[in-house]
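Handoff note, outgoing to incoming analyst
You'll be picking up this chain. Sequence as last confirmed:
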Amino acid sequence: MTSVEDMTLGLPDPIEADPPTIRSGAEELDELHADMLGQSGDTDSQMRSSANQFTDRIAWDISSASADELMAWEEASRALTYGAGILRLWAGDIDTYLTDRADIVQRWQQAKADIQALRGMGRDYAIGQAVVELFGGETEADRLAATREELRSEHAGIWGTLMTRAERTKIELRTGPSKESLERMVEAGLLTAGQIATYGDHYPAMVPDEIDGSEPPHLVNAWWDSLTEEEREQAMADDPDLLRDLDGIPADVRDQLNRDYLAEEPDRIDSEIEDLREEREALSNGPGHDGKRRILDNQIEELEAEKGVVETLLDDLGDSSADTDKFLLAFERGDNGRAIVSQGNPDTADNVATLVPGTTTTWQSIEGQMGRADNLVLAAENADEDADHAVISWIGYDAPNIPEAAGKGRAEGAVDDLSSFQDGLRATHRNSSQSNNTVIGHSYGSTVVGHTAQGDGGLNADEIVLVGSPGTNSRHASELGFLAEDVHASTAENDGITGFTGLTHGADPTSPDFGATVFESAPGSSDGAWPLRDAHSQYFLDGSPSLRYMGEVIAGNH
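Most recent structure output, in case you need it:
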């Protein structure tokens, strides 16, 4: 009889195809496409205007070519664009398979470890198990064999899906993409609706004539791409509040609308303060109104503080993104306020990172978060000075206070917003090659990242980083939908969060059993308020090993 120790899962060897090599092939097609057009911009906007530049390269006057010749040129452009997209879809399919396979292997290892843990309970377990087997119950090997069959069946399903996609990829590289693949390209941000329209293909999801904000980001972007310049200007004038915080709308458009909104905030706050002062003055001087006066005084003081934050933000943003390279992607005051600022244009950057903050963060924390983003950009530039980087300070959820941080409610409440935001980054990206996207979760922000990654919409990114994390609602990195090597974690020696990991938010992401790539952080200061101490907030300090490593991850070096 085979012992538990000798039992193996017995999956076939992993597929030998290498996603980075496949993506490199897609980039070569992109380079050929750009060289053919004589530029590096979008085909859908540059097709005709590039004709003269292309003529210089091959001594063929495309601008006056016959219709048949021009059609052949456009057909070549179409084939290169679609070919690159099909290769990237295939690389993504392999990534999905490898991630799912790793999760299956991890669950098998956990099942064996669970039996060993039960044996560790000693004599009582051994006697109980012996009695169960004596009366014909399941042996340990029987239980493990049943688990193995379930996992093998699950693997057969994902392997079958991968093989179906492989066959489809072979066919579509020869004959062109199916409608399903076109839709997947658009959803993944690999192809714009404008490009499909340029090539005369029918977008299968149908571009909506108008939107109400309930559409997914790729459809929002398809709608925007379908508009003329005049129609876009009209939409911005008609419904700025919808568009300025809508995933799928380009960053420069959101920035313009939010800057316009923010510029009017000081006057709105002054008006609110004046209303409160009038209300206070209307109160009689009797002792019965002392409490009400104190409440009004506190509200006035809070509004004056908010005005100071707004004015500082206006100064930091400058007159335009062209001056400061800062993009205001969302802004709203109030108890559930939002403030999202990108250092660098995420729609054109080679590498894009989203920084998700933790406990007690509010929209008024934006200055501190922007400072961390600036440091991350500099760290990424040190890792790769030739690439273009963008780091986003994402205060896009209602963060918990310290008592609430023990619960999962605020993390679950952030899932849809963070998932949609990451999908929106893919939809609006305008480079010929897909950007390398990283999501960095700090403190409770890492818990938000974990819940989002395991949510229905997933987390559209290439890498995730977890610093000062209390946990991600998972026992192993593979449960997050990423390969373990694409999950990076670090906790400083003096970070008080170490006293809370493994309690309510799953396993410690820096533990060996979790499977993430653990990187170095400085010990950090043991000073500061209990329970977290200053070390909890020192991962982004200039010159720190944690900042250097995160910059390397953003730059795609890990």
